[in-house]
Specification:
Number of strands: 19
Helix content: 25-40%
Structural class: alpha+beta
CATH class of the largest domain: Alpha Beta
Distance between the termini: 8 Å
Radius of gyration: 24 Å
Largest sheet: 7 strands, mixed
Strand content: 15-25%
CATH superfamily of the largest domain: Periplasmic binding protein-like II
CATH architecture of the largest domain: 3-Layer(aba) Sandwich
Number of helices: 17
Number of domains: 2
Oligomer: single chain
């Protein structure tokens, strides 16, 4: 990539990062992220940007590559006849300070994930492990009751509540990364908040971290498989303005860049945009907790009225220029089913792609009768969404459709991304733009977050029927029966409507001709650059 011209935006990069890198120089991959990463603590991280970077800094027992589970620190593993115990045999590998990675590091990391004091949002991910849920919820204070045990430095035994074949892939998730007890205790709450406040065992090491500016990752020469890593380094710039990032790519300062949705068609017509589903399934989440000032939010008929009032075809065409695609169900259809994709085995169209105004008004009439409200104009909802151009257009499009088709009032509340996430977590919303990216290739990754006791369920929704089906599916050994239970549960939650499906999120990127091997995984991270290379 030498010889690509750098225009005046090189000056902008200098201001942002202090020492600009021409993309590709010194075999270093350069790209940008819109959001800042608050921390890289594997057990406390809860967002795709953190997973994207953390996936390169830490190596779990296994690593998912192109959708397949491959050996990580564990060179092999055995599963007991009853399917409840997995024994991992660890390879020789080292932390970035030269100390060996041990089975005890994995035991400590998983138990730290579950420790109530950690307050990890992803603790639920380990509930398949025997004793994990009781320990995390404080019902059993004995950490030794959790079914994770290092029998020696190279052997880790994980005991499950029930046979769970897909849990092996789950162990590649960032939250299951190993943790060094001495390092965690040394830095306390500051652990993994700066480059020098952690040690790493992955393909790369974090060498520099300037908040809201840049991160620089260097190849970890002590990684157990260094020959597979082609890049010398990775520089990640934080650039909140998508137009700026795009200009920098065109001027040779970035190796790949996301295309803003408003420009997607332009680059698609040129044959340059590369669209892909990133696993995100977006919806309007409804705060269904009883609210005497807005009782309609707790009314299922009202929520379905809103769902049917949306023309998802035109909504996606207007708000994202067709980059995102309409979704009329809950679960992402392209996750794995029993032997085919889930959507192929269990086809479902709960909402019509173009909506149905007559049906929407009928549901609204039922809701108003139940609530003793005599006019739609007396109903107001506030839609919470983050403040950027794309989200603003999404909100305005929904506002116009819902107000026109139902006659109710829709107010838009635009806040910064971080504030939106906090308000959602604290139930400070009527409806909020939300969604989920799967942590493993199975519809259960979407379903389990809506259990009544899930830490991710901050809507107030709790359904005995839904919980019964999902809890049963979690222990069902017959794959077909299990998937059928999940499909039934999907219909239950759609009919209860604590969430109103909107779209399946696609991203589109432009890449330099010199960049090869960049992966866009459906699971976990936004981009996987671990095995990428520059010609």
């Amino acid at each position: 990539m030498t010889g690509r011209k750098v225009a005046q935006l090189g000056m902008l990069t200098a201001l942002l990062v202090g020492s600009p890198l021409l993309a590709g120089k010194n075999n270093t991959l350069v790209f940008s992220m819109e959001a800042e990463i608050p921390a890289l603590d594997p057990q406390k991280s809860n967002a795709a940007p953190s997973f994207t970077v953390g996936n390169a800094l830490f190596e779990c027992l296994v690593r998912t590559v192109d959708g397949k589970v491959t050996p990580g620190v564990a060179k092999s593993w055995d599963t007991s006849k009853d399917g409840k115990m997995i024994t991992f045999h660890l390879r020789d590998s080292k932390w970035s300070d030269g100390k060996p990675v041990t089975a005890q590091d994995f035991e400590y990391g998983i138990k730290r994930l579950l420790d109530p004091k950690t307050a990890a949002e992803y603790a639920f991910a380990a509930y398949y492990i025997a004793g994990a849920e009781a320990y995390n919820l404080g019902k059993n204070a004995n950490a030794d009751s959790v079914g994770v045990k290092a029998t020696d430095a190279k052997t880790l035994k994980v005991t499950l509540n029930n046979p769970t074949p897909y849990f092996l892939g789950y162990l590649g998730a960032y939250c299951f990364a190993p943790a060094r007890k001495d390092i965690v205790e040394k830095f306390g709450n500051a652990y993994a908040t700066a480059a020098d406040k952690a040690v790493y065992n992955g393909p790369f090491i974090l060498k520099e971290w300037k908040n809201e500016q840049r991160k620089f990752l260097a190849k970890n020469t002590g990684y157990w498989n260094p020959g597979a890593i082609k890049l010398n380094g990775v520089e990640i710039l934080q650039i909140s303005d998508t137009a700026t990032a795009l200009s920098m790519f065109e001027n040779g300062e970035l190796d790949f860049v996301e295309v803003p949705s408003n420009l997607y068609k332009q680059y698609e017509q040129k044959g340059m945009a590369k669209p892909f589903f990133n696993g995100a399934d977006d919806w309007m989440k409804v705060n269904v907790k009883p609210n005497p000032e807005k009782p309609w939010l707790a009314n299922a008929n009202f929520r379905k009225a809103v769902g049917w009032a949306i023309d998802r075809d035109s909504y996606c065409a207007i708000s994202t220029k067709g980059l995102y695609t309409p979704n009329s169900r809950f679960v992402l259809p392209i996750v794995q089913g029993v032997s085919r994709k889930y959507g192929e085995e269990f086809p479902l169209q709960f909402y019509a792609p173009k909506g149905d105004v007559a049906k929407a008004k009928d549901f609204l009439k039922k809701a108003m009768g139940e609530l003793k409200i005599d006019a739609p104009s007396k109903i107001t909802i506030e839609y919470l969404i983050q403040d950027n151009d794309e989200c603003r257009l999404m909100a305005e499009t929904l506002q116009q459709q819902i107000e026109k088709n139902l006659g109710i009032n829709v107010k838009i509340k635009l806040v910064p991304r971080k504030q939106r996430a906090q308000m959602e977590q604290e139930h400070q919303y009527d409806m909020v733009y939300s969604g989920w990216m799967p942590d493993y290739d199975d519809p259960m990754s979407y379903m389990e977050i809506w259990l009544g006791d899930s830490s991710q369920n901050n809507s107030g929704y709790a359904s005995p029927a839904f919980d019964k089906l999902i809890k049963a599916a979690q222990v069902e050994k017959d794959a077909k029966k299990r998937m059928s239970m999940i499909a039934q549960a999907e219909k239950v939650i759609l009919d209860d409507a604590p969430m109103i499906p909107l779209q399946l999120r696609r991203k589109a990127i432009l890449t330099s001709p010199s960049l090869v091997g960049l992966s866009t995984p459906l699971i976990g991270s936004q981009y996987d650059f671990v095995y990428a290379s520059l010609k």
